[in-house]
Amino acid sequence: VAILALGLGKTIVDGGLVWSYSPAWPRAAPPFASPRDMLDHTQTEFWAVNMGKPPAYDPIRETEYLLQAGLPDAERDGTLRCLASTYDADADRLTPGIARPGPRIVTFAPLLVHEVAPLNAVVRRLLADSEHALGDKVEIEFAVTFGGDGAFPIRFGFLQVRPLVVSHELVAVEPADLRADGLVLASRNVMGNGVVGGLRDIVYARPEGFEPRLSRRVGAEIAARNDALLAEGRPFLLIGFGRWGSADPSLGIPVVWGQICGAKVIVEATLPAMNVDPSQGSHFFHNMSSFQVSYFCVRHDGDERLDWAWLARQRAVTETDLVRHVRLDAPLLVKVDGRTGCGVVRATAAQGD
Predict the structure, then answer these.
(1) How far apart are CA 236 and CA 295, in angstroms?
(2) 11, 101, 203, 323: which could form a disulfide with 16 (CB 3.0–4.6 Å)?
(3) Percentage with pLDDT > 70 across the chain
(4) Is 299 helix (H, G, I), strand (E, B) or coil?
(5) 252-253 and 243-244: which strand pairing?
(6) Is the peptide bond before 153 cis (omega within 30 degrees of 0)?
(7) Which one, of 299, 324, 303, lies nearest residue 313 by Cα?
(8) What is the pLDDT of residues 296-350, one digit of tens each?
(9) Average pLDDT for 22-38
């Protein structure tokens, strides 16, 4: 499956309106009831870099130096002519291109149907060559840019490639399982698939002492525990607040992947003082997917569960005012269902009860 969008890739990462198609069948009819139906499901805005006057400094907004523009802006600079179709209301059909007047729908038909540039052929070749080089199924990212006024040549940028790690293990976690007794952690917002066993160590930011202004200190202390556990060969469960890897300490804990890479299960929790949207979709979390690390999001104001009282009763290996590392007598059992997006963490023995 290929996913395309006009503008910066933030539209795709954020789950916005995009165009999905099969590289094997680029001209296949889209899954819409009618061309009119596509008007309600087409991309109408795109993200771009703000090339004008810088806005007022606002560290809370990750889009501080970006702006959203509409399809008329893309049409004025010539970009849309290679990406859109025009809706003919009288005939209730689409015509590739923007030569005629009418509503524009971003279908990428000039590229995929009329092949004004061999985009799909390049994508298929890169997929095949990358799969051969890495010896596994792959995921690639690319960007296509057009010359001034939409003129040729079109430039294709190959951004990155990584193995597409897929777990074929069948794990069943139904919504009803999230309410079972004896759970340490339960969430409806989980990434990954499979069963993780053997975890006896938990490193977590203490909720009673956490403040956004202390995020950097929390990250440094967690990095120290990560290094120690890596040296001992002990994978662990990691719990923190806000977005792991955020560049802005007010939105989460600013660590790089190497500072938490020993974790086999990573949890993003929220607090009233750190109540931000989860960061799934970033490159940070693609690292987790590639290394088969399970990800849980647990909101303090939702119906997910995180038993802080149980954690507080466990034996501490090290602890500070901000971070606590506990070690269990019996390993945890982690189950993640990639089909339902549900996951649970259960203690396999009565510990600290």
Answers:
(1) 13
(2) 11
(3) 92
(4) coil
(5) parallel
(6) yes
(7) 324
(8) 999 888 778 899 999 999 999 999 999 999 999 999 999 998 888 899 999 876 5
(9) 87
In what helix (H) or strand (E) does residue 124 lie, and over which residues does it extend? helix 119-134
Which residue type, as a one-letter code, is found at position 194? G
Are the CB atoms for 218 and 323 separated by under 8 Å? Answer: yes
Out of 135-149, 227-241, 280-294, give the one with best mean pLDDT. 227-241
Task: Name 244's Cβ contacts closer than 8 Å, sequence gap at least 6.
Answer: 252, 253, 255, 260, 266, 268, 279, 284
Nearest CA to 255 among 245, 263, 247, 265?
Answer: 245
pLDDT for the residue numbered 12: 84
CA distance 244 to 237: 14
Residue 297 is encoded by which pair of tokens?
A: 């999001």
Alpha helices in the chain (DSSP H): 10-13, 35-39, 71-76, 109-112, 119-134, 215-232, 283-290, 308-313
Contacts of residue 16, Cβ cutoff 8 Å, sequence gap at least 6: 5, 10, 43
pLDDT of residue 129: 96
Confidence of residue 148 (pLDDT cuts 50, 70, 90): low
Neighbours of 48 (CB within 10 A): 16
Nearest Cα to Cα of residue 303 among 194, 171, 207, 176: 176
Distance (Å, whole) CA 190 – CA 290: 15
292 exposed, middle or buried (CB, 10 Å; 0-12, 13-18, 19+)? middle
In terms of DSSP bridges, do strands 84-88 and 93-96 run parallel, antiparallel, or are they unpaired? Answer: antiparallel
In this structure, are residues 324 and 294 in contact, taking their beta carbons and an 8 Å threshold? no
Q: What are phi and psi of 146, to 5 degrees?
A: -115, 155
Give the bridge partners for 48, in sequence order: 67
User: How confident is the model over 48-81, as pLDDT tens digits?
Assistant: 999 988 888 776 677 888 999 999 999 998 889 8
Distance CA 353, CA 344 (A): 19
Question: What does the block give as tokens for 110?
Answer: 């000039």
CB contact at 8 A, 236 and 270: no
pLDDT at 264: 94
Kindly give, in sequence order, each residue whose CB lies less than 8 Å from that of residue 322, ignoring residues fewer than 6 positions away: 205, 206, 209, 210, 214, 217, 218, 221
Please give the pLDDT value at position 287.
64
